[in-house]
Amino acid sequence: MTPSFSKTNYRLQSVSSGKMFEDTGWLLDAPNEDIPGLIRAVYENKQLHLKGPDFGIYTFADWLPVQRILKGSYAPVTYKSKGLARVLGLKNLWITFSGYWPEKGIEMSTCSFKETEAYSVCARMDGKSQQVLVVASAGNTARAFARVCSDNNIPLLLCVPEDNLDALWFNTPIADCVKLIASRSGGDYFDAIHLSSLACRLAHVYPEGGAKNVARRDGMGTTVLSAVTTIGKIPDYYFQSVGSGTGAIAAWEANLRFLEDGRFGRRKMKLMVSQNFPFHPIYDAWQARSREMLPFDNRIARKQVEEIDAKVLSNRKPPYALVGGLYDALTDTGGEVMIVHNKEGRLAAKLFLESEGIDIHPAAAVATASLMDAVKAGTVAGDALVLLNITGGGEQRFKRENKLHYLEPSLVFDIDPDEEEVYKKLEGLF
What we know:
The chain has 430 residues and is α/β, with parallel strands linked by helices. The chain has a domain at 77-109 and 216-399: Rossmann fold (3-Layer(aba) Sandwich). 34% of the residues lie in helices and 17% in strands. The protein has helices spanning 83-88, 114-124, 140-151, 189-199, 214-220, 222-231, 246-261, 281-287, 298-307, 326-333, 342-356, 362-377, 395-401, 419-427, and strands at residues 10-14, 20-21, 39-43, 77-80, 93-97, 100-101, 106-107, 132-136, 156-161, 169-170, 178-183, 205-207, 237-241, 270-276, 336-340, 386-390, 405-406, 411-413. It has a 6-stranded mixed sheet with strand order 4-5-16-13-14-15, sandwiched between helices. Strands 12-8-9-11-18 form a 5-stranded parallel sheet, sandwiched between helices. Helix 3 (140-151) links the parallel strand 8 (132-136) and strand 9. It is globular and about 60 Å long. It starts with 9 loop residues before the first strand and ends with a helix.
């Protein structure tokens, strides 16, 4: 039974200008502004009060821009580490886990924190529109949105690289309201984004918005909401791997809300984000202290993406430079960007399984490896309050325990598709 719920009261604010305005439905940008920047939700409730476990992720609804509750959600779980903490010599290591781990009280069927995005974004809708939501993804986000939209009868068009289709597995078949198209083998996440932008020119579809969608960021920010309300204070360090950096931006924004809340200290977590070598454009830009991303060859970038284990960390156009983006988040928190090789990530995943008792995604392994490196380098002291965001885990166990169903693409397009061909073929999908 779905708990009773009244929609969250909030307004939107331009990070660039500070101007406040009402959310008229699906705003992704501040109206009448020329400087590229994010918008933020400003909630009526300045202090966060949890609604309880029966609400799933919507226990954090005070700080989610939602109009309704959707069925099937879980909130991220935070616990104090014993095994990994002992190995690393950390006295105060806390882990926020999103995935499948029944013994911890969490059973995200897609095994990824991308569910936090999907349940927030889809609940921002009032449920009355029959227009088609468009989502571009390297894999995990597509799986999460497919599951949530299928379970709640929300029309959805997914755009995914053909090489990443093996990420679209499910324990039950996906409903017909969800359609999948792909960019041909050899393409990457950026090619899927391009395909989604073409689809959004059709009259009956609209973009999910990625990092620009306040619901996506605030959904991802529930990892920090879980951590701080469990620990009782804001951590010193926050470790997470990044592709777009949206999750790190969300963590920073959640931190700022806790400062305004006033009950959890005055600390800003130092953002410790990491990328998977050899694809690390965010690392390169940050090392140069450049607000703009550095130029790179797209053909070389595609080859680099083929080499990395953590395919989800493959965004060639992250929300880095715009006002309120990752550059500002790193600057404000005195953050760092690290790089992790595949071998290091694999060793970290093995260590996590042995010490904590659950398998983790390659992206989460990259974050774990970066924590190991920071401890070894002496960057993180043994008594520091550290938060490690495990953004996906339990997938291997889940696959052992369930029969899997795969979502097949309705259409596959060339990496540089003919635009008219795209429009013509998409018109007949829904």
